[in-house]
């Protein structure tokens, strides 16, 4: 495989709109067993350099030569059906060069066959994949290589180069993937809407097999994802380097679920193209074909669908996607909104959980990523009432395992108003929403079919979150005003906190079967009902009830500057979030959530029969006993002024008393 760089190849499909850009990427994500070290070998100095540094490294040296190589370590037992994706930020530049992919076979390095190199030897800039065939044996890669002998490595070796000037650079977003996992992504850069994205999707194609050398037999392609609109899409089959007659049989599952077999015959060794309609390629069989390219003539990632649900979802339009949606590129101000629309995210978008993503922030399974300087909106906030309105609906799932449903990076903005989010309908895995920056959730509803995690700082107002099959979990510290009016439900448990050494607070909320995991929690509940709270040994809950006192004179005017003291059962000053004694303001009112019950270190301490004491200059003091504070308590206290010849108290009739 030899590359003559006499022209520049743009490695992405790019559409430029008036105010936005949509980039479509083929199959760059997925996950395999694990990803390890990267080393660069310089043949002239016979030395190794550790390359891997936070997903950002030079590929070859700029003056790379014959014998130089880059080594990647994998934890997988076999390379067959696996590969890598690369974010190539700078392509290799030389008059000409040739690279070969090798792996350890029988204790020696051997060329890898059936390599699907969409990077075209790292000459294309953008996100591209390299798929590997064959099985590699254990080995240390040769004498002097600083690798553990029990790990497995592949390498790309320079076998020819002329006048190199740039060795290439790999940006964030490296990782390995399982080729059996279909995947693709759309990057929304600027301000986009559904109509423009669908138009862009129709105008682009995607490469399912890229100029692959094939032997006779049956093959699979893992990069095809079915049309989210549920229609058959046109496919092009391009053959090269074939003898006088060659044959291609394709077994397709049509949108109607009927299997159909296409039999294509090619003659001559010139490039030939044939087209069919297909919903999903089950397999294809080749005979006497040298190289083959399979192209889907529409990217096939976004589509508009009809509402076929059995319930009234009350949304304007219905859309479906089968790829990852990335809003923004980390540097360009971008936005995307789903107001009043329903968005169905198909299960195919969900590869395995652990690996990297293109913005260095979590697993590749993330279905929606909001990057730095990007905004994702669902609905809007009513300027008069403050309530959410016109929110969108998202339905997404993963069949097995965990996967972030929505993830935002630092510097992003998430606004979910009147938003409805269903996850994992009928699946056995779990979903996660991870907020890395500013996020507001108001008047919204979240429900997940298995396990649902919420990570990151976010303001929650008047919303319901829960799991109807397993449990719901909160994973972050917060201020009390940021968790107001939630309903938290989990069939198994509502995990109010799952990390150690952080405090969490809920206000005006309800939690079913609440529990805390980890250690050293202080969970504060303000006017929050918890059914069946279960604390662990080193975790605890402080149950507080709002205590509001307004002090007036007998004419109804507020008394400012009155001193309020509250004592618990033991005669100690009560524990208020606003510490007692508290002085009333101009409106004569104080408000302090008071500790009513404490369950910590498996020791339950309940406080009741609180005693209230009020003093104000020029007024007679008053004491109120037997206040239970087992619920939100609002009190109005009237103080009589002091007067008369003996400075006695004077009631509203003018009578003096002591």
Number of helices: 1
Describe the main β-sheet briefly. Answer: 14 strands, mixed
Structural domain tally: 5
Calculate the terminal CA-CA distance, rounded to whole Å. 105 Å
Number of strands: 61
Q: How large is the radius of gyration?
A: 33 Å
- Mean pLDDT reading: 75
Work out the strand percent. over 45%
Contiguous runs where pLDDT drops below 50 for at least 5 residues: 1-19, 27-35, 139-144, 174-182, 349-364
Shape: elongated
DSSP helix fraction = under 10%
Structural class: mainly beta
Structure, described:
This protein has 658 residues and is an all-beta fold. The protein has five domains: 15-29 and 181-204 and 313-469, no CATH class; 32-178, Jelly Rolls (Sandwich), CATH 2.60.120; 205-296, Sandwich (Jelly Rolls), CATH 2.60.120; 484-538, no CATH class; 545-657, Immunoglobulin-like, CATH 2.60.40.1120. 2% of the residues lie in helices and 51% in strands. Strands 25, 26, 28, 29, 31, 34, 36, 37, 39, 40, 42, 44, 47 and 50 form a 14-stranded mixed sheet that branches. The protein has an eleven-stranded mixed sheet with strand order 2-3-16-27-30-35-38-41-43-45-48, with helices on one face. A hairpin with a 5-residue loop joins strand 20 (245-253) and strand 21 (259-267). The radius of gyration is 33 Å and the shape is elongated. The model is unreliable at 1-19, 27-35, 139-144, 174-182 and 349-364 (pLDDT under 50).
């Amino acid at each position: 495989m030899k590359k003559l760089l006499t022209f520049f190849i743009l490695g992405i499909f790019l559409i430029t709109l008036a105010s936005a850009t949509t980039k479509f990427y083929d199959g760059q994500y997925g996950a395999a067993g694990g990803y390890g070290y990267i080393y660069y070998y310089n043949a002239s100095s016979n030395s190794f350099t550790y390359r891997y540094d936070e997903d950002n490294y030079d590929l070859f040296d700029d003056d790379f030569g014959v014998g130089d190589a880059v080594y990647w370590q994998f934890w997988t037992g076999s390379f067959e059906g696996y590969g890598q994706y690369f974010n190539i930020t700078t392509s290799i530049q030389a008059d000409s060069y040739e690279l070969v992919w090798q792996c350890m076979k029988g204790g020696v390095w051997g060329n890898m066959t059936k390599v699907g190199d969409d990077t075209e030897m790292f000459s294309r800039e953008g996100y591209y994949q390299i798929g590997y065939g064959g099985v590699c044996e254990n080995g240390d890669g040769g004498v002097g290589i600083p690798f553990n002998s029990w790990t497995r490595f592949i390498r790309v070796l320079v076998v020819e180069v002329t006048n190199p000037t740039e060795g290439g650079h790999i940006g964030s977003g490296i990782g390995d993937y399982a080729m059996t996992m279909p995947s693709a992504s759309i990057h929304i850069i600027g301000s986009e809407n559904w109509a423009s994205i669908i138009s862009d999707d129709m105008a682009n194609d995607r490469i399912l097999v890229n100029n692959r050398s094939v032997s006779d037999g049956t093959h699979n392609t893992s990069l095809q994802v079915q049309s989210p609109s549920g229609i058959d899409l046109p496919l092009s089959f391009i053959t090269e380097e074939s003898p006088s007659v060659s044959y291609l049989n394709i077994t397709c599952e049509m949108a109607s679920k009927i299997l159909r077999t296409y039999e294509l015959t090619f003659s001559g060794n010139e490039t030939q193209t044939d087209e069919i309609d297909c919903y999903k390629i089950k397999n294809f069989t080749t005979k006497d074909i040298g190289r083959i390219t399979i192209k889907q003539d529409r990217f096939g990632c976004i589509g508009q669908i009809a509402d076929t649900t059995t319930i009234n979802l009350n949304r304007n339009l219905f859309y479906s996607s089968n790829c990852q949606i990335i809003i923004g590129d980390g540097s360009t101000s971008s936005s995307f909104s789903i107001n009043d629309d329903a968005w169905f995210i198909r299960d195919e978008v969900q590869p395995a959980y652990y690996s990297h993503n293109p913005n260095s922030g979590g697993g590749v399974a993330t279905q929606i990523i909001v990057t730095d300087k990007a905004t994702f909106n669902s609905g809007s906030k009513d300027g008069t009432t403050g309530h959410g309105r016109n929110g969108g609906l998202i339905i997404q799932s993963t069949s097995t395992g965990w996967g972030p449903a929505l993830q935002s990076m630092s510097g992003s903005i998430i606004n979910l108003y009147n938003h409805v989010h269903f996850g994992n309908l009928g699946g056995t895995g779990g979903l996660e929403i991870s907020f890395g920056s500013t996020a507001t959730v108001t008047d919204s509803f979240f429900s997940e079919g298995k396990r649902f995690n919420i990570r990151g700082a976010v303001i929650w107002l008047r919303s319901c979150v829960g799991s109807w099959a397993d449990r719901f979990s909160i994973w972050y510290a917060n201020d009390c005003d940021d968790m107001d009016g939630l309903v938290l439900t989990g069939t198994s448990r509502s995990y109010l906190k799952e990390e150690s050494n952080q405090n969490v607070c809920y206000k005006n909320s309800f939690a079913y079967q609440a529990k805390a995991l980890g250690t050293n929690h202080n969970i504060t509940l303000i006017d929050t009902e918890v059914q069946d709270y279960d604390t662990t040994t080193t975790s605890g809950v402080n149950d507080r009830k709002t205590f509001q006192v307004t002090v007036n004179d007998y004419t109804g005017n507020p008394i400012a500057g009155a001193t309020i003291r509250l004592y618990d059962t033991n005669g100690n000053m009560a524990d208020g979030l606003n510490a007692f004694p508290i002085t009333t303001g101009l409106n004569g009112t104080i408000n302090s959530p008071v500790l009513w019950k404490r369950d910590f270190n498996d020791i339950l301490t309940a406080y009741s029969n609180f005693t209230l004491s009020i003093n104000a200059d020029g007024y007679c003091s008053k004491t109120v006993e037997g206040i239970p504070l087992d619920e939100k308590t609002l009190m109005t206290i009237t103080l009589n002024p002091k007067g008369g010849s003996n400075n006695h108290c004077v009631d509203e009739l003018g009578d003096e008393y002591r």
